[in-house]
Amino acid sequence: MASVKQVQITFDCAEPERVARFWCEVLGYVVPPPPEGFATWADFDASLPPERQGAAFACGDPTGVGPRLFFQRVPEGKVVKNRVHLDVRVGTGLVGDERLGRLEAECARLVGLGAVQVQVLRADGYNESCIVMQDVEGNEFCID
Fold first, then answer.
1. Residue 1 has pLDDT above 70, yes or no
2. C-alpha span between 86 and 78 (Å, rounded)
3. Which pLDDT band holds residue 52 (cuts at 50, 70, 90)?
4. Residue 23: which of 131, 144, 117, 137 has the closest Cα?
5. Coil, strand or helix at 104
6. The pTM is what?
7. How many whole angstroms separate alpha carbon 112 and alpha carbon 52?
8. Residue 43 three-state SS
């Protein structure tokens, strides 16, 4: 029998704290307390060598159920579609217009946070509706 493992989802990005704080708002996640001996994450960051300052940031599910999200600065920009993406599940159990209405409301909230709506995929008899989005650095995700 296989054992269940915890996972962390890691994002390569240009501005780790900015992207992390966006996802905190999307998912209701929180930034963990700074390391012992530091009053704030800014204080901790200032203690690092200049090349490591702003290089990483993390957030997590306050209930401890969902995966930790880790954001790391990389030098290259995003150039192709993600091979893996997050689905933000807001329409689970809903169908038709009720589902689409819930998705559109969440889309409007996320656009207000800096996301971009890419495409609305309407129910086709096989798949229910979903909305393809991009986060504040262009990473694709879906609202479904």
1. no
2. 16
3. very high
4. 137
5. helix
6. 0.90
7. 31
8. helix
Please give the Cα distance from 36 to 32 (Å, whole number).
12
Q: What is the pLDDT of residues 61-83, one digit of tens each?
A: 999 999 999 999 999 888 888 88
The answer to whether 7 touches 91, Cβ cutoff 8 Å, is no
3-class DSSP state of 60: strand
Three-state secondary structure call for residue 72: strand
CA angle centred on 26, ends 99 and 106, rounded to 5°: 25
Classify 29 as helix, strand or coil: coil
Tokens of 52: 């490591």
CA-CA distance, 114 to 107, in Å (whole number)? Answer: 11
The one-letter amino acid code at 53 reads: Q
